[in-house]
UniProtKB/TrEMBL annotation:
It comes from the Bacteria. This is S8 family serine peptidase. InterPro entries: Peptidase_S8/S53_dom, Peptidase_S8/S53_dom_sf, Peptidase_S8_Ser-AS, Peptidase_S8_subtilisin-like, Peptidase_S8_subtilisin-rel. Transmembrane segments: none annotated. Residues 1-21 form the signal peptide. GO terms for molecular function: serine-type endopeptidase activity. It comes from Flavobacterium profundi. GO terms for biological process: proteolysis. PANTHER family: CEREVISIN-RELATED, PEPTIDASE S8.
Amino acid sequence: MKKFKMTSYFGLLLFVLFSCTNEDTYDENFSNENEKSNETTIANRLMSRTALPRYSNDRLIVRFAPGVADSIKADLRDIHGVTNFKLCEHCTDDTIELWMFGNGINIEPKKSAIEQGSGGGVEAIVDVDYEFTFGIDLNNPDLGTANDYNYHSYIKSSNDGVTIAVLDTGIAPTIGGDDNAVFTAPFLYNADGDGNPSILSGWDFVNHDHNTFDDNNGRHGTVVSSIITSILNDSPSAIPHQIMPLKVCDQYGKASYFDFLCATNFGLEHADILQMSLGWYDDGFGDFLNTIISSLINEHPEVIIVTSAGNQQNNNDLLAHYPSGYTHENIIAVAAANKYANEAFTFGNSNIANFSNYGLESVDVFSRGENIPFLGYDMSGTSFAAPVVAGVIARYKYEHPGFSTGELLFQVINSGSVCPTSFDTAKKVKYNKVILP
C-alpha cells in the first residue's frame, strides 16, 4: 500500500508482452529497446535480460476518451496507418484497442506522432505505451498431468463471500488426483449471472476460450490459487469465496501486456481482489507510471490488488518493478520471508528469503515465500508469498464488509508480526511486518 499518486491520461499506451518464465526467447517482431538507449543504468545491465522488457516493433495500445464515436476511431486508424486492431475480450470498456502496423515502420516516431495528434486525434486518444516482453523466474518442478483440465464440476452453484481473480497461468482443478486432491469442493467463480454465455467461470486470454487450464508444467497459477483457498478454507470459520481464473500466461509463462491489461480490466469489473504473481522491471525506456493499466487501477479504488515484488534480490526503490511498484492506495506489494517465518518457535530466526526483492518505499510487507509445501514438493518465490496476503485480505474483507480499501489494508498490515531482529536491516520493506496466514 503506497501513498497515492494521481496518474494522468497522456498519449497512448504501447502494447506490452511480458513473461512469467526465465526463458531467453524472442519473438520475431520484438527487440530489446535497451540496446537502442544510451541511458541504460548499471542496474539494468546487471539485470537478467529476461527480466527486462522487450518491445514490439509494430504494435501499440491506445485508449480513446470516453464517448468517441466509432466513425472517429476508424478515421484515426486510417490516418495513422493501422493495418489491424483488436478490442479487449468480454470487457464493457470499448475504449482500449491494440493497434497493429505493417512491417518497416519505426515504432518510436509512430508513438510520438499519435501522442502529439499528428494527423488528428489529440483529444480523442488519451493514452499510449510500448509493447514489450519480460520474464520472471519459474522454478517449479513438473506437477500434475495434461488431463487436469476438467473444471465444470468445480464451478460453484452460486457465488458468495469474496471473489479473488488470479491473473496467472490458469488452473488445473483435478491436480493431485483422487488420492491427493488439492481442490476437494467447488471453488471456481460462477459466471452465469454476468450475462455472457461464452464465459462459464474465468477466461483464457491467451487461447481465447472459456477453459483456463493451467498448461504450465509447474502449474504456477494452480499453486498460487491453492494457497489462497487453503488459507480461507482452514480459517477458524471457513470463509466463503470463489477463485476467478484469468489465464494471461501461456505454457511457457509468456504473456502479452495487452492480454494482461484486458484481464486486469475484466477482473476489476467482476472481482473484489486481484492476485498478480508476475511482473517486469523499469528499463528506463518506457513511462510505466503513466500507463493505461495505472489509469484502470485508479478508476477502481474499491478493488484490492496484491502483487509479488520479484525474485532478483533487487532494491525496487532503485530499479522499479511493476505492477508492484504502482503507487495506488489499493495495491499491496509482497516480498518473501524465508521458511522460518511461519513457525512460532523459529520465527525469531526468520529473515528475508535470499532471492526476494525488497524496498523501503516500494514494497509493503513480507510473507513466507520459501519452501511452501505442494504435493510433496517445496515451492519458493515471491509468487507464493503474495497469495498468502491475498488470502488474509479476503478473510478480513469477509469479516469486515463495511471497511473501505484503506481501512482494510490498514487492519491487515497492523495484524502482521514485526520483523524480528534476525531480518537483514539492509533489505527492508515499508511496514516492517510479516503477514502470517
